[in-house]
Specification:
Layout lengths: L2 H4 L6 H12 L14 E10 L5 E8 L10 E2 L2 E3 L7 H13 L8 E6 L3 E2 L5 E9 L13 E8 L45 E5 L4 E8 L2 E8 L11 E2 H15 L15 H10 L5 H9 L3 H5 L6
Parallel strand pairs: 1-7
Antiparallel strand pairs: 1-2, 1-4, 2-3, 2-8, 5-7, 6-7, 9-10, 10-11, 11-12
Length: 305
């Protein structure tokens, strides 16, 4: 039994195996570095529920955010000077957004996952963290986050819920004493908005997807309901959904019960390489690679685009 296990409530066997797989996981080997000015990190924060299942924390972004206002998201953001590494970025952002302690014993790092490319040309690396201290009481930053809730990690492999989720974090989160009362009211219920460039999709009571035209081809955008849509919480969609599907697939060593990619969709590594190296890719990423002197990384062992 590892020291991490001794700090946790009773775990289901599949939850224990999931933690072990994360600890043993390493992203696909690459010698290529991403430019820091176009890098970001998100925190996949796990905790053990009452019945021994693993849950992941999700938040609703504040309505005044410049991008993705009121979206359901994982804590995270761009690299800032002073961040030691990707883990440092994820921990700082989680601390700033929901008050997650920086203490590495109370919140253990399990692994880094493979990087993802966003629509605004950021390379995002997920960091998997595990809460081992259930006395923690998150403190939300109202300028960034309005709601904190949880979903079973395993639900992101299913087209229908495999267990009844306790959609609230088991520890009540605190709000600052000066939290504006107006922000405690629920915003209007939001629908599943149409996507520009949509080329196909499927709706379901829990899971759905849409294939959209993005850059060089089609990309599948997955959607999971949270059970809180009546309170104005948006579904888990797009990049956040893709990251959680990837995390659950690694942790539980299972493929999702739905088709992961659109016909002909490139892998994420191929999309990142295309964005950096192809003239029709991302000018912002190419400029950042050049400014940070990283072209040698990307010109070595060129793949066919």
């Amino acid at each position: 039994m590892t020291r991490v296990e001794t700090l946790l409530p009773p775990l289901k066997p599949e939850s224990l195996q999931c933690i072990h797989r994360f600890v043993a996981y390493s992203p696909a080997e690459t010698r290529r570095r991403y430019p820091r000015r176009r890098s970001a990190a998100v925190a996949i924060i796990l905790f053990v529920g009452r019945l021994g299942d693993l849950y992941v924390l999700l938040s609703t972004r504040a309505g005044n955010m410049r991008t993705y206002a009121q979206d359901t998201a994982l804590p995270g953001g761009k690299y800032e000077e002073g961040d030691m590494d990707t883990e440092g970025t994820a921990r700082r952002e989680a601390y700033e957004e929901i008050g997650l302690p920086m203490d590495h014993d109370k919140v253990r790092k399990l692994c880094l996952l493979d990087s993802f490319l966003t629509g605004n040309s950021l390379v995002v690396t997920p960091v998997v963290l595990l809460i081992t201290d259930h006395t923690l009481s998150p403190l939300l930053n109202p300028t960034e986050v309005t709601t904190l809730f949880s979903m079973p990690l395993s639900s992101f492999l299913q087209s229908r819920p495999s267990l009844i989720p306790s959609f609230h974090y088991s520890i009540l989160h605190r709000l600052p004493s000066n939290y504006p009362p107006s922000t405690l009211t629920h915003p209007p219920a939001v629908g599943y908005a149409e996507d520009e460039g949509e080329v196909g999709g499927k709706e379901g009571r829990f899971y759905g997807f849409r294939d959209i035209l993005w850059g060089e081809g089609k990309v599948r955008m997955h959607r999971f309901l949270t059970g809180r849509e009546g309170e104005g919480v948006k579904p888990v969609y797009g990049l956040t959904a893709a990251i959680l599907i990837h995390a659950a697939s690694i942790g539980y060593d299972q493929k999702p019960s739905f088709q992961l990619s659109a016909p002909g969709q490139r892998t994420m590594n191929q999309r990142i390489e295309y964005a950096i190296r192809h003239p029709n890719g991302s000018a912002a990423l190419r400029r950042a690679v050049e400014a940070e002197g990283l072209w040698d990384d990307w010109n070595e062992g060129k793949a066919k685009l």
